[in-house]
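Bug #77: duplicate submission created two jobs. Keeping one. Sequence:
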Amino acid sequence: MGAKLKISVAHVEAGIRQEPKDMPEEINRVVTDHVSSYLFCPTKQAVDNLAKENILNGVYFVGDVMYDLFLMMEHKFSYEVFEELGLEENDFVLVTLHRDFNVDLPEKLERILNEIRKVNRVKKVVFPIHPRTRKRIREFGLESYLDGLVILEPVDYLNLMGLLKRCWKVVTDSGGLQKEAYFAGKRAVVVMPGTGWRELVDTGWNVLAGEA
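Kept job's structure:
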């Protein structure tokens, strides 16, 4: 809308690219990059991605605002949920799952839940479950795969970061949490065919599960 009204648009977190290309946020970020006057990139890879699309003007490498937020709020992270569940530090795996390509197909969702169940045999799984994922699990009759897992309603940012700081590892399809896991010093398995944060995979910190 800003571009149509001839108002300069600034895009924070510009230049991120990932698969699948039909993800709504991927479509939106590509379009936004091409109509923005100011492109604030969180990584050098993002700057390079823009250059490949011949976007060179108004590009600034500014660092990651999510990291700024993490550092600013770290002293306020809440361990209330961690304590209420009686969890032990570094003794559980934090799982989040919500992407349509993971949860909307019964066979795909069942395979993922089966792998999560295997993880739970080794380390306790704590699973704040997204409403979409819960709905699909019920719809597809997959409730038995949740047996033995610690299932939670979605938690707020401060409690989620508290769980993250105290967990052992992370399994997620969240674009943000895979990055926040790195900020917290936790390795993550990313259940996606691609990631906008290639640096975390290329350095071997996170593992890209691809098509589960």
